[in-house]
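In response to reviewer comment 3 from the previous cycle, which asked for concrete evidence that the modeling workflow produces usable outputs, we include below a single protein chain processed end to end. The sequence was submitted unchanged, and the resulting structure tokens are shown without manual editing.
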Amino acid sequence: MQDFRTHLQKHEKFKRAYKLVDAGDYKLSIQANEAAYCSPRRVLDDVYGYESFEVVIKKFYGANSVWVHPSSIEGLDKRFDELFCSEDNIGGYMRVKDIQELYEFLSIGAFKTE
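The workflow returned the following structure tokens.
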């Protein structure tokens, strides 16, 4: 499966934000800028320069969406519960490897076995 970073595109209206990334029945908000929980905490021209990102899992119901905590996604490894704040459902400073695993699970419904 493709690296999730290949899907990160700058938002036309919000220049320092990335567009949502499709991941199966969900969409991922994957952000990196001076206001996001990422490292480094600044805007880079190359998305491959980030060690970590801020992530929100969104579920859409028509035009409306809710932020989803990993604990409510059946089959998702419980370790993701600890990577997201239970109060606001934000995954701060998430490592690239963890985001890739989350992206793959949500996209195909299972963890890749190696």
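The mean pLDDT is 92. We consider this sufficient to address the reviewer's concern, and the full set will be provided in the supplementary archive.
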